[in-house]
């Protein structure tokens, strides 16, 4: 199994660390270079690429089946986009989260100070939703070990008890099919599986879900007509775009190029490729007598092997240590040779 886009990538190492930060496609680097060169010549700064923002909304909406561009806001990180949801909850409200959840999901609720934040095992999340639960917040794919949330079951549970559901899709978007209707709120950073930029993240929600949630500190870019209201702000739009932050246009340029590659390849094709590589890697781990977290995901965590990360890096196999495990992540630029190289280095211990 070869890389899905060999002409777009030129890594000198065996890069298996997309769950931390993706490699940039050649088209992203070229687009950013062109923008910065034009900027340096004084012939237009990065904001001349503002025309890419509506396209970027459309592209992300395309990854959430049933969403439209009006349902998408742009931000600079997942936690700030979660902030308005945390602030809108009444004092004492219960927020249900998974044990071991990534901190960007939990911190906005934990540090508000007057909410009841209850941690339960991921596999019991749906069973633990109860009438007093106001919100469930969870990543669809866990950062530490790749475990996948059963969204349809969890969605049914939150609806049965009148709770809202917030999903972080940062470790899922691009390779896992997603449905807008499976949650009330979605957040997603682009610098991992979307091969975008650290400075660009998405917030997705429909009108009903946001009717009681307000932007905390709307920027000029969140105005109904931002360029016309620079000095005389009038109103916020009725769409989710009212949660916009001022974009980093260089980041928008990079994120747009990364999403264009995903659109060309399709989520279905990326899904089959990534899971195929991860399956081969898990089979190899079994032959080596090593144990991985039991889940079918492009993120593979080898239990208790976190200390081996520096040794692999010395052999130019780039991974990351998380929660005591050694985390490998396989994306569209990886190939069978990357899987076999990683297994070879692990076997040499």
Structure description:
The protein has 349 residues and is an alpha/beta fold. The chain folds into two domains: 6-24 and 266-347, Alpha-Beta Complex (Aspartate Aminotransferase, domain 1), CATH 3.90.1150; 30-263, Type I PLP-dependent aspartate aminotransferase-like (Major domain) (Aspartate Aminotransferase, domain 2, 3-Layer(aba) Sandwich). 34% of the residues lie in helices and 16% in strands. It has ten helices and 14 strands. It has helices spanning 26-40, 52-63, 78-88, 103-110, 151-161, 207-210, 249-265, 267-288, 309-314, 336-347; strands at 14-15, 64-65, 72-75, 94-98, 116-120, 133-139, 164-168, 178-179, 185-189, 201-205, 299-302, 317-318, 320-322, 325-329. The strands form four sheets. It has a seven-stranded mixed beta sheet with strand order 3-10-9-7-6-4-5, sandwiched between helices. A three-stranded antiparallel beta sheet has the order 11-14-13, covered by helices on one side. A hairpin with a 2-residue loop joins strand 13 and strand 14 (325-329). Helix 2 crosses helix 7 and helix 8 (267-288) packs parallel to helix 10 (336-347). The radius of gyration is 21 Å and the shape is globular. The two termini are 26 Å apart. The model has no long low-confidence stretch (mean pLDDT 96).
The CATH class of the largest domain, by name, is Alpha Beta
Give helix % range. Answer: 25-40%
Largest sheet: 7 strands, mixed
- The amount of beta strand, in percent, is 15-25%
- Taking the alpha carbons of the first and last residues, their distance comes to 26 Å
So what's the overall shape?
Answer: globular
User: How do the helices and strands follow one another from N- to C-terminus?
Assistant: EHHEEHEHEEHEEEEHHHEHEEEH
Fill in the CATH topology of the largest domain.
Aspartate Aminotransferase, domain 2
The CATH architecture of the largest domain would be 3-Layer(aba) Sandwich
Number of alpha- plus pi-helical segments: 10
Radius of gyration: 21 Å
DSSP, total strands: 14
Q: What is the spatial order of strands in the main beta sheet?
A: 3-10-9-7-6-4-5
Mean pLDDT: 96
Structural class: alpha/beta
């Amino acid at each position: 199994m070869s890389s899905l886009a060999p002409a777009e990538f030129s890594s000198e190492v065996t890069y298996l660390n997309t769950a931390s930060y993706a490699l940039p496609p050649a088209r992203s680097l070229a687009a950013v270079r062109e923008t910065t060169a034009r900027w340096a010549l004084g012939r237009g700064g990065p904001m001349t690429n503002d025309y890419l923002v509506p396209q970027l909304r459309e592209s992300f909406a395309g990854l959430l089946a049933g969403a439209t561009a009006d349902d998408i806001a742009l931000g600079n990180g997942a936690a700030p986009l979660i902030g308005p949801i945390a602030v809108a909850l009444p004092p004492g409200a219960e927020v249900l989260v998974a044990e071991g959840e990534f901190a960007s999901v939990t911190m906005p609720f934990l540090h508000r100070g007057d909410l009841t934040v209850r941690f339960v095992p991921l596999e019991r999340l749906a069973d633990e939703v109860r009438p007093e639960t106001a919100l469930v917040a969870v990543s669809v794919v866990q950062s530490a070990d790749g475990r996948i949330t059963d969204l349809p079951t969890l969605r049914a549970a939150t609806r049965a008890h009148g709770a809202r559901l917030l999903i972080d899709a940062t470790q899922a978007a691009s390779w896992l099919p997603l449905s807008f209707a499976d949650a009330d709120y979605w957040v997603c950073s682009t610098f991992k599986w979307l091969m975008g930029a650290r400075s660009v993240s998405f917030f997705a929600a429909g009108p009903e879900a946001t009717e009681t949630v307000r932007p905390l500190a709307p920027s000029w870019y969140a105005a109904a007509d931002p360029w016309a209201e620079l000095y005389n702000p009038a109103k916020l739009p009725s769409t989710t775009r009212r949660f916009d932050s001022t974009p980093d246009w260089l980041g928008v340029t990079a994120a747009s190029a990364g999403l264009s590659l995903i659109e060309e390849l399709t989520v279905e094709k990326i899904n089959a490729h990534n899971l195929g590589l991860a399956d081969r890697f898990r089979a190899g781990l079994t032959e080596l007598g090593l144990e991985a977290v039991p889940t079918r995901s492009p993120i593979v965590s080898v239990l208790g092997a976190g200390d081996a990360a520096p040794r692999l890096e010395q052999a130019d196999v780039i991974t990351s240590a998380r929660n005591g495990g050694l985390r490998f992540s396989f994306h569209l630029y990886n190939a069978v040779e990357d899987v076999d190289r990683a297994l070879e280095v692990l076997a040499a211990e």
